[in-house]
Each structure stands twice: as structure tokens, then as C-alpha cells.
Amino acid sequence: TLNYTDKTAESGSTYTYTVRAVSGDSIGTYKSTSTIYCLAYPVISSVSNVQNGIHISWNKVKGASEYYLYRKGSDGKYTRLGKSSGNTLASVSESTLSYSDKKAVNGEKYVYTLRAVNKNTISAYHSLKGIVCLSVPVLDKATSKQDGMHISWKSVKGADAYYIYRK
Predict the structure, then answer these.
(1) CA–CA distance, 135 with 91 (Å, rounded to integer)
(2) Is the dihedral of CA 75, 80, 82, 84 positive or negative?
(3) C-alpha distances in angstroms, 58 versus 21, 31, 85?
(4) Which DSSP string do the residues of the chain spell out, in sequence order?
(5) Could you report the per-residue pLDDT of 86-123, keeping only the tens digit for each?
(6) Is the pTM higher than 0.70?
């Protein structure tokens, strides 16, 4: 085996690793070491349609100082939407981060992913979440008819169905 996964490493900690060769009772020397900051990948907790776009929320990663959020559209390419420090990508709370993608286009399907960052350490991509951007249906008219109330609305690009609510 020429690899090992340290499943006990904790996010926000620094570790130094080295490897020694073994053959029976013979053990080689330490040759090189590698020091790395362990940074877990962020998990997207929710992706939902909102009034003017798509809202993405994720859980805080221990040791992360910022996050990079990426979006893939119909062109099949990921684009970095921004980072959570500097130009403030997200509204920050103690345990959850979020972003509203106001440039999402109605009827388009998007996939979101993000990475945690701390100085020169960037986590892996994970937690891909897809969603179709759906605008709010515009009610066309509502009329009272002999057999009940009749309502109609304008088509929403990308919608497969509609839910009707009554208060």
C-alpha cells in the first residue's frame, strides 16, 4: 500500500507526517516530512429558491477563515461567485454561512459547491447541490364562477408543476 488516510485528523489542527519503509525486522530512516493544516470540507445545508434568485446555506468549518462558493450552469463550467472575506460573499453567523445568488436566471439549473480556506490551505470540493431557478408565478386573474373560484397565472420557465395555496 502506498497511501494512507488519517481518519482521526481534526479540522483546524496542524499535523506533520513522515513515512518509514519496513522489511521484516529492518526499518528504514525518516527521510522527509510533510506538514499540513487539516481543513474539513464545508457541507451545504440548504439550497432554495427565494424572491430574486437562489439562497445557499452551509455549516461552518472549524479552522476556516473564509469560503469560496462556486456555481455551475448550463455551460458545464464552475465559476467562483466570490469569497466570504473581503468582498463579503456571505452573511456570517456563529454556526451557519449563507449567500443569495441574485444573478441566477429563471429556468436555469445550477449546481453549487464550496471550499473552506485558511491561508494557503484549501479544502476539497464537496456537497454538490443542484436546483432549478424558478421565479414567482404571476397571478393573471381570479374570478368567481358558479362552480367555484377560477384562478390563472403566467407560465414560469423551468416549472414542471404548480402548487396552489389558499388562505
Answers:
(1) 23
(2) positive
(3) 41, 40, 15
(4) ------TT--TT-EEEEE---EETTEE-----EEEEE--PPP-EEEEEEETTEEEEEEE--TT-SEEEEEEE-TT--EEEEEESSSS--SEE-SSEEEEEETTPPTT-EEEEEEEEEETTEEPPPEEEEEEE--PPPPEEEEEEETTEEEEEE---TT-S-------
(5) 445 554 445 568 888 989 999 999 999 998 888 888 89
(6) yes
Locate 63 and state its grid cell: 479552522
| CB 134, CB 49: distance < 8 Å | yes
CA–CA dist 2, 24 (Å, integer)? 17
CA distance 28 to 103: 57
